[in-house]
Amino acid sequence: MPELVRVDDWSEGMNNLAQVDRIPPKQVRDLLNLDPVGGGGLQQRAGQRKVADLAGAHGAVPYRDGLLVAAGGNLLQYSATTNELRTIGAAPATGGLCGAELNGDAFLCSAIDMLRVRGDQVGPWGLPEIMPRVVLSSGNLPAGIYRVAVTALDRFGAESGAAPLLVTLEAPGSIDLLWTAPVGATSCRIYASVANGETLYLQSSSHTDGFSLTSVTDSSARLTTTNLVQPPVATHVTAYKGRLVLVVGSALWITEPFAPHLVNPAFGFVQYGAAIDMVAANDAGIFIAAGQRTYLLMAPGTEDASQRDIFGFGAVRGSGVTLPGGQAAWMTQYGMAIAQVDGTVSLPQQQRYAPSLAAYATAGVVDNNGLQMLVTTMKGAVAPNTLGVEDSFDMEIE
After folding, report:
1. Is 158 inside any structural domain?
2. Longest C-alpha distance within the chain, in Å?
3. Is 388 contained in some domain?
């Protein structure tokens, strides 16, 4: 009778690269709803509990001690501390939701809209430029070339970008500006230069639809948002060193310093040769997978920005995550890629596990019973990875 051998050490996890009859010690072919723990045992994977019944939920973004959830045309805030879910504003009824938290505010993108959340306040994430209509009238402004601009302020005090206009007075006169304030604006600011000057100074902040420039004050605040614009609607948003990083097709946009509501349309992006699938950031920089390449973008948005190749293969769309220890991680055809804060990247599963392939994924860190795990959930059309062993058998031919 065959001797029974007790096997109770699976501390090294799953292996689907070895033949099924040659699984190395301390490894197991497959685990379902179980996780290996220190010492070689197994524990049941963390379960779930229902906290609310929602109709039409289509996206959630971590914020403070919980989540911001888009469902049924509403934006809801869930607190894990109090287990409370309440409506704080409106959101598109479909299309998904992405975003990130930066300095206590959440910045959200749906398929068609951009929102900023500060506590219970919800408003637009940035405002579009104002292009005023110019009418010349009689007055005492000296003849010359003037630069004029109008900006809008939102409920958070963020000022829109501006595209200054050149206005020529061939004789003394005044400059009338007429405009329509964008939705979400609480006030507007008017800036102007002296005759033939370059610098624009604040002239008024108490008008919302028109202003007559009859004299110029050149000792007030200067315009600082020249040629900056509202960020584009993105499919992924990540916070990185005081800025926001946005994925828009094959371009990676980076917001301005101290101005997450503005980008530079001329220099504020990096273009790639394929659609960006994954972004994960740590102190080394931003790891980007686009098509069949993976890159590390260092010091983005500065004069010292540089980039180097990491892998000659891409990543599963949406699988990027920053770990509590500061590492960046994402899913590849060779398993998880782990990037250290010095920029080195390893593939710890490459020699023993090939994950299933999927159209996209979500990733997060789960703490359960003393074990901290990085869990990646594959979504969309899931297919076997040809690197793995699906099955094997022995046969004899006579």
Report:
1. yes
2. 112
3. no
Q: Is 15 a domain residue?
A: yes
DSSP 105-131: EEEEE-SS-EEEEETTEEEESS-----
Residue 248 lies in a domain: yes
pLDDT by residue, tens only, the chain of 398 residues: 677 666 667 778 888 888 888 888 888 888 778 777 767 777 777 777 888 889 999 999 999 999 999 999 999 999 999 999 999 999 999 999 999 999 999 999 999 999 999 999 999 999 999 999 999 999 999 999 999 999 999 999 999 999 999 999 999 999 999 999 999 999 999 999 999 999 999 999 988 899 999 999 999 999 999 999 999 999 999 999 999 999 999 999 999 999 999 999 999 999 999 999 999 999 999 999 999 999 999 999 999 999 999 999 999 999 999 999 999 999 999 999 999 999 999 999 999 988 888 899 999 888 877 778 888 888 887 777 777 655 444 444 44
d(CA 247, CA 224): 25
Same-domain pairing of 166 and 189: yes
Cβ–Cβ < 8 Å for 161, 230? yes
Write the CA distances from 227 to 108, 113, 266, 328, integer angstroms: 23, 22, 9, 34
Structure pTM? 0.90
Q: How many domains are contained in the chain?
A: 3
Minimal CA–CA distance to 90: which of 109, 104, 71? 71
Does residue 206 come out as left (phi exceeding 0), alpha (psi in the -120 to 50 range) or beta?
A: alpha
**Beta carbons of 132 and 175 less than 8 angstroms apart:** no
- Say yes or no: 142 and 201 in one domain: yes
Q: Tell me the residue range of the domain where 120 lies.
A: 58-126+242-267
